[in-house]
Give the backbone structure.
Amino acid sequence: MTDALPRAVSRGALALVAVVALLGACGGDDTSDDKVDRTSGEEAGNDGTLVDDPCEILSLEDLSTVTGIEFDGTEPSENACTYTSSEGLAAIALNLTDIGDHSAEDALRSAERSCDEGTLVELEFTDADGGFGGTVSGVATVAATGDGIFAVLTGATLAEGVDTEQILQDLATILEHAITSG
């Protein structure tokens, strides 16, 4: 029981770090009234919601398979979800933002400025308008845009032997799979 509290605190701290980095990479105006619910294909309400259940975009099984860490929890919020692992003390956060009247190129370039110096890598994703990977305040971050939506994944773990490069590769694989299967 003495290990339970530090593990819970560490798990919460990882989720917080992932969300803070995600917010840094996702600064954007939500000005469009014509949003499409990616899970149903129908127009979402004008309340800013892009998807009904953002935690259904990525599967815990896929996250576990790609990372080798068992993901077992989700924490949804509007247009975002944080996926967590009790076992591996890891967190992956997904955030979706409507780019409104901005072009995909402008949205990507604006977000890229949040990357730590020397970490930015341009990435190509199937059926996406563009993407990148890098670290934001030291946290692994991968982003892509398409269909007027900017998607960002951030990830962190306390698991030994997992470096930032591996996390970036895993996040890129996860995002690619989400784009091609969604």
